[in-house]
UniProtKB/TrEMBL annotation:
Coiled coil regions, renumbered to chain: 74-101
Location (main, coarse): cytoplasm
One Gene Ontology MF term: protein dimerization activity
Gene: Mlx
Organism placement in taxonomy: Eukaryota, Metazoa, Chordata, Craniata, Vertebrata
Protein name (record): Max-like protein X
Functional note: Transcription regulator. Forms a sequence-specific DNA-binding protein complex with MAD1, MAD4, MNT, WBSCR14 and MLXIP which recognizes the core sequence 5'-CACGTG-3'. The TCFL4-MAD1, TCFL4-MAD4, TCFL4-WBSCR14 complexes are transcriptional repressors. Plays a role in transcriptional activation of glycolytic target genes. Involved in glucose-responsive gene regulation.
Amino acid sequence: DDEDSDYHQESYKESYKDRRRRAHTQAEQKRRDAIKKGYDDLQAIVPTCEQQDFCIGSQKLSKAIVLQKTIDYIQFLHKEKKKQEEEVSTLRKDVMALKIMKVNYEQIVKAHQDNPNEGKDRVSDEMKFNVFQGIMDSLFQSFNASISVTSFQELSACVFSWIEEHCKPQTLRDIVVGVLHQLKSQLY
């Protein structure tokens, strides 16, 4: 009886150890399968991990390469997202500016419709454009003569010195007066 119970206990212990070992092996295999599936999923999702056939058979990418290509792709996506967010921000500002301009033009049109005779003695749009063009031409000529675009640093320095020299109120006033005299002589 004792021998039979000893054998039964040893058999029970071995089967318990076997079951634990089997359970551990199965858990480890599940873990490895989950990791493999994760790498396969990454390789399928990330465009830069697509298999490339360099020879007749295709070689599987190493896990390190899959991870690096995934990191690179995520960084690329972050940069793209940031660019798109900046674009959206710029477009929102543009839309806001256009809405403001629309409101202003609507007010001008409404004021003109309410008083159609007002402004008959005003300066024509063509004359306004000629004054604007003369001022801008004068500023551009001095800008073009003063600015160097050899390097960004030189450009920055030239722009600041040009602004300080050519955009003083007295200088701008002289430019406007000169343009008006020139246009006056053309009219008469």
